User: Fold this.
Amino acid sequence: MNAPAGTPSPRTLDPLDRLIVVATQAGLPLSPRPYLSVAEQIGSTEEEVLTRVRHMLADGVIRRIGAVPNHYALGYRANGMSVWNVPDARAGELGRRVGALAFVTHCYRRPRHPPLWPYNLFAMVHGKSRDEVEEKVRQIAALLNADDLGHDVLYSTRVLKKTGLRIADKEEKPCSA
Amino acid sequence: MAGLAPIAEADRNAAGTAALSELEKRLLDEYQHGFPLSPRPYRDIARQIDSDETTVIAALDRLTRAGLISRVGAVVTPHKAGWSTLAAMAVPPRRLEQVADLVSSYPEVNHNYERAHRLNLWFVVTGTDVLHVRSVLKAIEARSGLAVLDLPLVEAYRLDLGFPLQWD
Assistant:
């Protein structure tokens, strides 16, 4: 398990950093010199792109670079967003323990919106079937024990849009369509 | 955008994992992070796994075309280079298609899922800053006439750092 990310602090990227992030998160070209292709696309040099990517990885702006798996296509058909109501004072400790479970891919604290939404801890669980996800949710419930004040599992029933997580270009305007 | 494709359709497009070569499995297992930061990254990967550059590029191309990986690229950390939030709406079922299309039409929306719950539409909005993201939520509320729950990350306990795949 990696160190908890804590509460992230915003960092100002300059326009070239931003162009590099947008270009690299969209997908590196599958050609022998992908950073050179990115550099040509944004009017920079291969060395500059590599240096800035290294810095952004070191600063944590970029979390990782690599193959981004499509869990669903790889057989993880059940995508369960488990949501938990845990005492606020214990959320940090409990979140770290739940986040340390190998089958939890994301674990975040988010605000409640009572009464419609009483949950403050989100843990994404991927499994090859709903039975598998439910078994994993039972493991989380057992770990939380008395701190589980209520939970639910929301399964996705349709993917309506999925593109790479991207930061918007400065120039990008909200769609007027 | 993907439109309202049911999950079963994505299923048909996927090649499945049974036909994956050992090389493809290794690329999936070992290169979800740590992609080389060098001028010839595919050649460096090839050296690490006893292959050659052309074969590695071809394998990654096949995995991408088959939909098993969405891309080889960077994954950014939430709130480090902008702002994002998870938003949810309770949409009357008869309006779901219309509202889902409205939501997906925004370039700031990159994930949009239907989920089995009274809050049945869940999407991620990213922007340059919190005001940009909130303006998108407000616009969706105004145009749909429905409330949007704003659920930004407060603290991260586990970020997506890749995922151990099980081959069976």
Summary: Residues 5 and 60 of chain A are 9 Å apart (CA to CA).
